[in-house]
Amino acid sequence: MIEEKGLSRGLRSVESSYQPLVQIDGEAKVMAASNNYLGLSSDESLIGVAIEGMRSFGVGSTGSRLTTGNTTLHELLEKRIARFKKCEDALLFSSGYLANIGVLSSIAGEGDVILSDELNHASIIDGCRLSKAATRVYNHVDMADLKEHLVRSQNKRRRFIVTDGVFSMDGNIAPLRDIVLLAEEFNAYVIVDDAHATGVIGENGRGTASYYGVSVDVTIGTFSKAIGTEGGFVVGSKDVITFLRNRARSFIFQTALSPGIVAASIRALELIQHDSALRDQLHLSIKQCREGLRDLGYSVLGEGTPIIPVVIGDATKAVQFSSALEKEGVFAPAIRPPSVPEGSSRIRLTLMATHQKKQIDGILRAFLKVGKAFEVI
Hints:
377 residues; Aspartate Aminotransferase, domain 2; 13 helices; 2 domains
């Protein structure tokens, strides 16, 4: 049944580091699907400090933060990410997924309601399910619908509005200024998952709240996208972070991030804050690719983010389209249900600051050839 619907999934082996050109099945391909937005995952200075961190503290963290896994590196990274996000305090998680689950399942409880955008990431959806609060889903970035949910839920003890900052499958940016205004009007709390915004948009890459010039109650994020490493974080007030440190099960019972990863994350934050060259180059490439695809006649979703969804429609056709792209030297897997709604399967291109113009040109040439062959353009 899964195979017949074009929804069967398998693993592909990448045989090199995540740079614009990668080795897959012994052949060089243009990597057009990595979340390594600033190209930092293979940055030599990050690799160097990761090695130093392992030499000083070992390869593994050996336990949870509350037992044996806490080092001065972990504490320093929390201070740095809190300062970067202009918040009082921060807490590290072993992944962004665990951060979302930990925050939503512990902060919201019985008598509360979570108002969640319908295109929020799966980790937000799972966090809502684990919470004892009621969950109401509002139409994607539809502020009139969100307001209606706020009006209807005034009998609830507390209301939490949770949204992605940048939506991972559509590449658009949440209307956070409008969300904050509604939250103020109806005395609600705002929680933002900034996974795909951190390092990419806002002042010095500070994320969605900075992009709009607003403040939110809690920001969740990950180091596994633009930061180039891995792990998750939550930033907010000291009271919120203290509560999570004592109540979030996915923090309490997780093994702490390895010291090398933490050291590399500290270095990455330094680079992002003090040098805009990579971010500037990324946005030039985004503009070139997005405009080129639209000029070819493609339906392209999103706005000025590294996520460039090219809608194909049928799931089987999208898989075949992706395979044809790979034969032209471009690696960009198809995205199908349940990751996206039925009938909206797509090629989700993601760009890196380290892509060269000639590689973007190559992506566009491949889309021209394959699009004509499949009668998409």
